[in-house]
Design a protein that fits this description.
The protein is about 50% helix and about 15% strand. It has about 525 residues and is an alpha+beta fold. It has 3 domains: about 180 residues, Beta-Lactamase (2-Layer Sandwich), CATH 3.30.450; about 100 residues, Signal transduction histidine kinase, dimerisation/phosphotransfer (DHp) domain (Helix Hairpins, Orthogonal Bundle); about 160 residues, Heat Shock Protein 90, CATH 3.30.565.10. Helix 2 runs antiparallel to helix 7 and helix 3 packs antiparallel against helix 4. It is found in: Membrane. Its main location: membrane. Its EC number is 2.7.13.3.
Length: about 525
């Protein structure tokens, strides 16, 4: 059985997790959800391209209108041109100027009363408009928007470069920035004879439209942010609070207060947090039971060890005082028996503590199970340690039952089961062993004629340090670890062991071991 290896992703030094492992879950949940909203907030910067497209469209519109107005003025008689200029200025809402080749203003719609073209003085704006202009400037700075030249309105002069009349040969348009950061569009259209029609439009509606969309987007983002933060805090609370409760309980268990600590099981939760809570609760209960069993066993061992030690001390002290050889022989027999009992107890405790580590490194080989059990029984019969035992096989006597196993460990399983059956069988009783095939498994039954095992104790007898000895048995012959060792070994061989009552008798226990056949399992 190969030891499990940790995934590289779970290593503490993994750079991908190093930064996140230092931050609590609550800010991490908030950061993830707020980051998504920040991406939505990026729409503020998308509005800049939206504004650019609208402005480009408006520039093309003003340029076309300037060309049409130039054609209308050219077609009108000279005497009616002021009236035409005034009406066109009123229709477009802008300012129209007719310039000669020297850039001198020949006609101006403002002087003629055609329109009331005025720029907003930012000094008269309220706090809301100032904040809006500040936000416009900030976003323009962030997105690196191109800056238009500043427009200074002067009714007596055209807002154009000197020589515009001499240089204008085709339709042209320029975008300016008013003092209140709204766009001002000027378009020049040439007339026959060298004069130029200059149209000036303050496109405040573009800025207002962008600001309205930005305001709406701000409401959406702020609302989504509030909902996201509330849901994130709720989610963090449903995750972090129970984890903190579990962590506090675990710390108290670690500090040695397991007896008074109740690890919350969170039965109302059906998610992974609930699974973790119940697993930790079960683990603490199992730990508490293990501690109780260990303490009880240690107290029992401490108490019972005094008897053989006292016996040893008494026998050793008496040896120096007694000269009778027969009495000395009896004392030496007592010493040997006590030493054997103590050695058996200490060996079982040592093996149980090292068993898991040893099985993880064990080498599994193909073994004939029937031959192994028959050899164990033959050795016991030669030593004369069997009162009555019979090997019963459902298979043919020369049949082989191969299993993948570590031979010495598997022998220990059946040694422990046979010892257990012999210790509970009455004098002259029979311990029988039956081996048969069940589907893809081999089933070994070890049956005795003892008092049996109560139903409520059939699981407890496989726990470490659990020992139920016959009243007449001397302490030390059985440590209470034999069945626990047997189960650990069998489960390491991908098998199972259980105890049940015998159907053919009113008393007696039947221990059933099931192991997979070698051909049905891959070597571990």
């Amino acid at each position: 059985m190969a030891p499990a290896t940790a995934s590289p992703r779970s290593e503490p030094g993994d750079p991908a997790r190093r930064w996140s492992d230092q931050v609590s879950l609550t800010p991490r949940i908030l950061a993830v959800n707020v980051f998504a909203l920040l991406l939505l907030g990026g729409g503020f910067f998308y509005l800049d391209s939206f504004r650019t497209r609208i402005l480009d469209s408006r520039v093309m519109q003003v340029r076309r209108e300037a060309g049409l107005m130039a054609e209308a003025l050219n077609a009108a008689p000279p005497a009616s041109r002021p009236a035409v200029l005034t009406r066109l200025a009123r229709d477009t809402g802008g300012r129209l100027q007719l310039l000669d080749r020297s850039d001198r203003v020949l006609m101006d719609s403002e002087r003629l009363g055609g329109s009331d073209f005025t720029l907003v003085d930012p000094r008269t704006d309220g706090l809301g408009q100032r904040a809006a202009r500040w936000l416009d400037a900030l976003i323009d700075f962030i997105v690196r928007a191109p800056s238009s030249p500043a427009f200074q309105g002067d009714p007596s002069r055209s807002q154009v470069d000197p020589g515009i009349a001499r240089t204008t040969r085709t339709l042209s348009a320029t975008v300016w920035r008013a003092p209140d950061r709204t766009p001002v569009i000027t378009a020049a259209a040439p007339l026959p004879g060298g004069s130029v029609v200059l149209s000036t439009i303050n496109a405040r509606d573009i800025t207002e439209r962008v600001r309205v969309e930005r305001y709406r987007l701000s409401l959406v983002v702020l609302t989504a942010l509030a909902i996201s933060v509330a849901l994130s805090l709720y989610l963090a609370r449903t995750i972090v609070d129970p984890l903190r409760r579990l962590a506090r309980a675990a710390v108290r268990v670690r500090l040695g207060r397991a007896r008074e600590v109740v690890v919350p099981r969170l039965p109302e939760r059906r998610d992974e947090i609930g699974m973790l809570a119940r697993a930790l609760s079960d683990m603490s209960l199992a730990l508490r039971a293990r501690i109780d069993a260990t303490e009880a066993f240690a107290a029992d061992v401490t108490h019972e060890l005094k008897n053989p030690l006292a016996s040893l001390r008494s026998a050793v002290d008496s040896l120096t005082l007694i000269d009778d050889r027969d009495a000395q022989a009896r004392l030496l027999a007592i010493v040997a028996d006590d030493v054997h009992r103590l050695d058996r107890l200490i060996s079982d405790i040592s093996e149980a503590s090292r068993l898991d580590a040893q099985l993880s490194r064990a080498k599994f080989e193909r073994i004939d199970l029937i031959a192994m059990i028959a050899s164990q029984i033959a050795q016991r019969e030669q030593r004369g340690t069997v009162r009555g035992i019979r090997l019963h096989l459902d298979l043919l006597p020369d049949a082989q039952v191969p299993v993948m196993a570590e031979g010495a460990r598997l022998e220990r399983v059946f040694d422990n089961l046979i010892d257990n059956a012999l210790s509970f069988s009455p004098d002259g009783g029979i311990v029988s062993i039956a081996v048969r095939r069940v589907d893809e498994d081999i089933e070994v039954r070890v049956e005795d004629e003892g008092p049996g095992v109560p139903a409520e104790a059939r699981e407890a007898i496989f726990r470490r340090f659990h020992s139920v000895r016959p009243s007449e048995e001397a302490f030390g012959k059985h440590s209470g670890l034999g069945l626990a060792i047997a189960r650990t070994i069998v489960e390491a061989h991908q098998g199972s062991v259980a105890v049940e009552s015998r159907e053919d008798r009113l008393s007696g226990a039947r221990f059933v071991v099931r192991l997979p056949i070698a051909d049905a399992v891959e070597p571990a």
